[in-house]
Amino acid sequence: QVQLVESGGGLVKAGESLRLSCVASGSIFTNRYMALGWYRQAPGKRRELVAAVNANGPLKYGDSVQGRFTISHDNATNTVFLQMDSLKPEDTAVYYCNAGKILSVLQEDFDSWGQGTQVTVSS
């Protein structure tokens, strides 16, 4: 099972940018049915899918981040990035990544999650 580690979070002001990294212990996209998603969970709210990607490129963006966030991957380093531009205070959350079959990624169907990385956007 591939291990995933999130990093890149921090404290920024509204309008600024951050790039999150999700580094895998091995190859993520071993076949066309595999994908990886970035998720976030704000205090008091349920976890939500932010963006998902497979070997061919982005699969989905959440409505609230469409046009501001970009998901990409680097197969050479087994890393998936989440470029977050024009950040808003409502983007404040713990951000997680997880990988599996496409349907599992889109439905957030996982038994375990990593520690995530905190993103805080001040107004």
Q: Would you identify the regions where 5 or more consecutive residues have pLDDT less than 50?
A: none
Query: If helices are DSSP runs of H or I spanning 4 or more residues, what is the number of helices?
Result: 1
State the distance separating the first and last CA atoms. 40 Å
Radius of gyration: 13 Å
Mean pLDDT: 96
Main sheet makeup: 6 strands, mixed
The helicity comes to: under 10%
**What is the string of helix and strand elements?**
EEEEEEEEEHE
Shape summary:
globular
**Structural class determined from secondary elements:** mainly beta
Strand content: over 45%
> What topology, given as strand order, has the largest sheet?
2-10-9-4-5-6
Count the E strands: 10
Explain the overall architecture.
This protein is mostly beta strands and 123 residues long. Helix content is 4%, strand content 50%. The protein is built from one helix and ten strands; from the N terminus they run βββββββββαβ. The protein has one helix at residues 102-106, and strands at 4-7, 10-13, 18-24, 34-41, 48-54, 57-61, 69-74, 79-84, 93-101, 117-122. The strands form two sheets. A six-stranded mixed beta sheet has the order 2-10-9-4-5-6. The protein is globular. The protein starts with a strand and ends with a strand. The mean pLDDT is 96.
